[in-house]
Every structure is written in C-alpha cells, then in structure tokens.
Amino acid sequence: MMEEKEEQSDLSLQKGNTGGDSFRLHMVTWNVATADPPDDVTSLLHLNSPKSPDLYVVGLQEVSSRPVRFVSDFVFEDPWSQLFMSTLAPRGYIKVSSIRMQGLLLLFFSKLEHVPFIRDIQATYTRTGIFGYWGNKGGVSVHLSFYGHMLCFLNCHLAAHMNYASERVDEFEYIMDTQNFECKKAPSIADHRLVFWFGDLNFRIQDHGMHFVRSCINDQKYELLWSKDQLIMMKTKEQMLQEFEEGPLDFPPTYKFDLNSDTYDSRLYKTWLGFNGKKRKPAWTDRILWRLRPKASVSEDKNTLEKVKQLEEDEEYPLKTRQDLYTSNMEYKISDHKPVIGIFTLELRKMYETPLVRLQPEGDWSADIDSIIIYSPLQPFPSSSWDWIGLYKVGFTSVTDYITYTWVKDDEVAFNEEIIQVYISKEEIPVRGGECVLCYYSSTLRCIIGISEPFKVHESKVAIEEGLLPEKVNGLNKTVASEDFWN
Questions:
Q1: pLDDT-based confidence at 409, cuts 50/70/90?
Q2: Which fold has domain 357-466?
Q3: What is the C-alpha to C-alpha distance for residues 485 and 477, in angstroms, rounded to an integer?
Q4: Listed ranges 68-82, 140-154, 275-289, 465-479; the one with the highest mean pLDDT
Q5: What is the band of 65 on the pLDDT scale with cuts at 50, 70, 90?
Q6: Least confident of 25-34, 286-295, 461-470
Q7: In terms of C-beta density within 10 A (0-12 exposed, 13-18 middle, 19 or more buried), how is residue 206 classed?
Q8: Among 13, 118, 142, 232, which one is most buried in terms of CB atoms within 10 A?
Q9: Residue 170 contacts by C-beta under 8 Å, 6 or more apart in sequence?
Q10: CB-based contact 379:354 (threshold 8 Å)
Q11: Which of 127, 175, 168, 129 is closest to 152 using CA atoms?
C-alpha cells in the first residue's frame, strides 16, 4: 500500500515537473520513552524500498539521559546515533549534523554526493521545561543551505496533558521567536525557504469519549476524530500555525500504547491519593508539518531593496515540496509511542552545481612513502589556516570519522593560483590499505566543501616483507587497519 502511494506521487511529480531537480527526503519522529534502540531499523528507514532517499532526518524524544549514560554520550556517540550511523553509512550516507538537548535528539544524514553542496550548517536548542532551565521539553534545530536553499528542521517535545493545548502553542511560538542563526539570509526560523516542524507535539483529542475514540480507531474512521484534534483546532485561530501544512492523519493515533504491544493504554494508574486514575486516551501526539515561506513574509528590518532581491531569487530558483507518504509504523513496540514517518519530494532549482574545491590523490598511496594531495579551488571561498583535508575509508559515518588529516596551510608543499599540493606523512597511513576518499573541510563554512573520487590505498610492502602485524606498527594502525575496519 505504501509503495502504491509513492508510485502515484512519482507520476504526479513527472506531470508537474518545472525543470528543477528532485530530491527525496525521509523523515522519522519517535518518542522512544528512554528505551534502548531496537536491533533493526530497516522498516523504519524503508531500506528495502527500490527508491533510496537523498536525505534522512531523524528526530527522537525522551532518549535516555540518566547521568551516567548522558556523560558517556558526550565522549562517545549515544546508542541511537550509533545505530542510525552504522546502518546508513554502508549505504553511502554520512551524518552531516546532529544536536542533542537532554532527551531531544536530531540527526541529519545525506548521500555523499550531496555533501559538498550542504553548507552553512548550524544547530541550536531552546529549553521550555521546568522554569526554562531543565531540558526535558523544548526544541532542537538544524539550519543549513541545500544547493543554496535555506532549510530548517525543528524537532520539538512540547508540554504534556490534555489541558495544556494553549501552553503547547505558546512554547512553539517561543521557540520560533528565540532561535537565531548566524546567517544573513535566514537569521530566524521563519526566514527559511522551507521549515519542517516535527516531534512529540503532545496535542490530544478532546471532547470525544474513550469509547468513541477507540471505536473510530477500530473501524479505521480516523476522519471522525480530526475535528477534535487539538492541533487542527488551534490552527483555526493561530496565525503562525496556519502557515504550516500537514498531510491527512490516515493512520492510527500513535499514543499511548502498552509496552511491547499494539494495545492502547490498558493500565490503571494510581493517583497521589491512592485512587485509580484514568487510562490515557489515544492521540496523534507525534506529527510532521512543513512550511514554505510565504512570498510576502519578510522581516520588518529588511528594506525594500532586499525584499525585491528575495522575491527575484524565489522566482529564479523555485522550491516546491510535496508529501508522498505520512504514516505510523506499528512494528516497533519498545515505547508507548509509535514512530511516525514522512516522505517528501523537494523540487528545486540549484543555485550552484560545482563544489568549491576539487581534490585528488597524486600517485600511488601506501604507508611506505609520504603521500601528496592535489586540490584546486573552483570558486572563491573564505579559506582559513584551520581548514584541513581528511583521509576517510569508503563508508565513513561522519565528518569526525577520519583515519587521519592534514592541515591545509601547515602541510603545504607547493602551490600556484590553480593547483595546491599538501602532504600526509607515511606514518599516518594505514598499513593494510583499503578504499578511501579525501574530504576538504572548511572551518569557516563549517562543512565539507570537496570530496575526491574513491581511490585505493595499497598495503605496505615493507610491513608485509618484515612480517609486521598492524598492532606492532603503531597505535593508529592498530585502530584503523584491522580486517573488521575495512570489511
């Protein structure tokens, strides 16, 4: 059924094609209720689908933040991040950005081919929990330029309980108003061309009784509940909410389930006075919405010239989005929430199509000789003495997952206006070799701006002749040149 919906969407895209490029975005939001990750996320990420996404965005809420776990997560990637990274890296995706605030986690992945065109990456957070200090509620966001188009992804966990619908809206508006970025084109969330707002928004179904709600769910007559969904109700009177679109809620409410089951809340709760409390009524607490910036939506501090410039850019480089799928996944039972999946097509005209830097290895590479990297700036960019080039194995997980790196300015050996050479010491190259790529990281732009074609690093002939095992060569090779690493 999901595949049929996606095929129909592809047909409609072909009919409405405006000459731009199309990109597939797969989004997930899931309140994981402090549970450990499942063993497999194949169905969550639609890994068996014939159409692979260009981008993955995963927003989690209530990730375990016990003191020992939280401290260790700052030293190592948390188990949830590790799971998604290890699952997606072999398929050619790297984690471009992530941000965590207490139990809120946002992960942004991209196919490697798009990475040099994802720039100005920034992430921030806003607390709205107890007195605004505790991070159990609030929002985390990632801001970036995708082929020149400013996008923002906002993962929220808003106030709980039936009677706090207005407070949820207030929290959302506070997050929208207070999150800012160091970016002239999009200093606030509302300035972005496209915003995705998602997470455990905690809006409930009010007025209808438990029996009626469960009856509608059993009969799959979800539309009978929409008029009393608090988010849909609040959109009728809140201007900011009206600017956000959402697909139809044609799937079962995703909260609240008994753990390890598909049964809606059946437990009896004890109140402070010892009386039995009510069971939680099912609700669509977990949502994905989006907002294309209205043409007339320009900050008051922008002058007329900038307003005209923005309108001209919008016309010259159009951006459209369409939701192809909006559903829940009932397979996962480790939480009292079910995950929600949204698949989108972004159709846009690229503002640039060449990377800022082209780079490649020179000659044969091995741990027997110092190696040379050649790179050429293809366009002007703000270079820095803190720029570096990293050597990565094919299938690396993130920008920090390098084998070794070299500072561009410190290790320069020759240059002219068009071609610059830098070297990497042979001691830094893994003796077992393997398939690798080179990535140029710009510290000013905070992103990778050039990636080489994959190339072969050969095994060290010296190490083979002398019968040296990797762990006896040096500490680096003990880590990066094991069989498991390259396999």
A1: confident
A2: Immunoglobulin-like (2.60.40)
A3: 10
A4: 140-154
A5: confident
A6: 461-470
A7: middle
A8: 142
A9: none
A10: yes
A11: 175
DSSP codes of every residue in 7-62: HHHHHHHHHT--SSEEEEEEEEEEE-TTPPPPS--TTTTTTTSSS--SEEEEEEES
Integer angstrom CA distances of residue 332 from 40, 85, 100, 156, 263: 10, 19, 23, 21, 12
Name 250's Cβ contacts closer than 8 Å, sequence gap at least 6: 222, 326, 327
The DSSP secondary-structure symbol of 149 reads E
The predicted structure's pLDDT at residue 31: 98
What pLDDT, on a 0 to 100 scale, did the predictor assign at position 412?
82
Task: Answer yes or no: are the C-beta atoms of 182 and 145 closer than 8 Å.
Answer: no
- SS3 percent helix, strand, coil of the chain, rounded to 5, is 25, 35, 40
Confirm if 20 and 348 have CB atoms less than 8 A apart: yes
Query: What 3-state class would DSSP assign to 188?
Result: strand
Domain edges within the chain:
21-348, 357-466
> Among the CATH numbers 3.30.930.10, 2.30.30.30, 3.60.10.10, 2.30.110.10, which is that of 21-348?
3.60.10.10
Question: What average pLDDT does range 305-319 have in this prediction?
Answer: 85
